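Design a sequence for this backbone.
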């Protein structure tokens, strides 16, 4: 059993920044990857960024590649997403994802709202 808990969401002005955190707990000794997805109202959930836990490889959606940065803290089983230069279209619920022993786990989501 793996639990993912996101934090750090909030409301910011366009151009502002937020840092999202996702802490994994439970049976997390075999994390394959952790990452972030987001879902805006009326839209499908989309990939944002991910972190290969073992090799440290990072992956980004083209829409956020130059603005967001994913990082990790191995000792805390925590992944972060630094969101810079936020745009109103970044408004969404951001979900933490973890792949552990071939299974997908999801956090409850944290709301990011970017105003014009």
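Sequence:
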């Amino acid at each position: 059993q793996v639990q993912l808990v996101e934090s750090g969401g909030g409301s910011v002005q366009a151009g502002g920044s937020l840092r999202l955190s996702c802490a994994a707990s439970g049976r997390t000794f075999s994390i394959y990857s952790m990452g972030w997805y987001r879902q805006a109202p009326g839209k499908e959930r989309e990939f944002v960024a991910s972190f290969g836990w073992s090799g440290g490889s990072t992956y980004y959606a083209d829409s956020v590649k130059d603005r967001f940065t994913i990082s990790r803290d191995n000792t805390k089983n925590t992944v972060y997403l630094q969101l810079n230069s936020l745009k109103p279209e970044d408004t969404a619920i951001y979900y933490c994802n973890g792949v552990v022993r071939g299974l997908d786990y999801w956090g409850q989501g944290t709301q990011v709202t970017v105003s014009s």
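The two ends are 40 Å apart (CA to CA).
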